[in-house]
Design goal:
The chain is mainly alpha-helical. The chain has 9 helices and 2 strands; from the N terminus they run αααααααβαβα. It starts with a helix and ends in a 21-residue tail after the last helix.
């Protein structure tokens, strides 16, 4: 009898494994690792995940995009944190202007079940916690663009002035989907000009009112969550 039960288990075990959601164990492991982070670290991982989720649904591309963002943070290029780097104007297209897609991405949390989101979260946490020795390309690789997503055939001005990175880490990436660049600095990719008000063409009183009501031209940044205080601390 026992021998028959053992044989039946061996027959049914592969089917039971196949019926298990492929990322269920990974999701539990991720949530456990995510909870061990401080609130600000959790926020940083979320911003990194939102960025790579907005750029691609392929894990090999998401991982490289995540390292580009980490390179920017660690070299303080366009920001000191993942949140600042991702929200920097004119850097990552999904965050440049208000759209339904931007609203969706900003609403994603560790428990969201949008297809592909949990994969992006796990890759973001992996890259966020990875030792520097696993960096797939130089820390100066801080730019990429996707030719297939460009509105025209013309590359960004900084891409025309630079050379694509050709290292082994990107050898398996389709260059029509993503190209990565090394050594692009502020000279080749200058910061966007600060917004300046046009000269007033209406009475001063109306101009002051218009200045208060007129949109600034920049997309509002979501507020950073405030870490909860421990009991007894002020």
């Amino acid at each position: 009898m026992l021998r028959g039960l053992a044989l039946l288990c061996l027959i049914l075990l592969p089917e039971a494994i196949a019926a298990t959601p492929p990322d269920s164990l990974g999701r539990r492991d991720f949530l456990a690792a995510f909870r061990r982070l401080s609130p600000l670290e959790q926020d940083e991982v979320l911003w990194l995940a939102r960025c790579i989720y907005s750029e691609s649904n392929r894990p090999e591309e998401q991982r490289l995009v995540a390292w580009v963002v980490r390179n920017r943070v660690e070299t303080r290029y366009r920001g000191d944190t993942y949140r600042e780097v991702v929200l920097e104007p004119r850097q990552f297209s999904a965050f440049n202007r208000p759209t339904p897609r931007r609203d969706l991405i900003l609403s994603l949390t560790p428990r969201s079940t949008v297809p592909g989101w949990q994969q992006a979260l796990r890759i973001a946490l992996e890259v966020f916690q990875a030792p520097p020795s696993t960096r797939p390309f130089p820390i100066t690789v801080r730019h990429f663009y996707s030719p297939v997503s460009m509105p025209t055939d013309d590359p960004p001005p900084w891409a025309s002035a630079g050379r694509p990175y050709r290292g082994p880490a990107v050898a398996h990436i389709d260059p029509t989907r993503f190209q990565f660049f090394d050594g692009i600095d502020a000279r080749l990719d200058p910061e966007p000009p600060a917004y300046t008000s046009p000269p007033p063409t209406r009475p001063a009183r109306l101009s002051r009112l218009w200045d208060r009501l007129r949109p600034s031209g920049r997309v509002p940044r979501p507020a950073r969550p405030i870490p909860p205080q421990r009991p007894g601390h002020r």
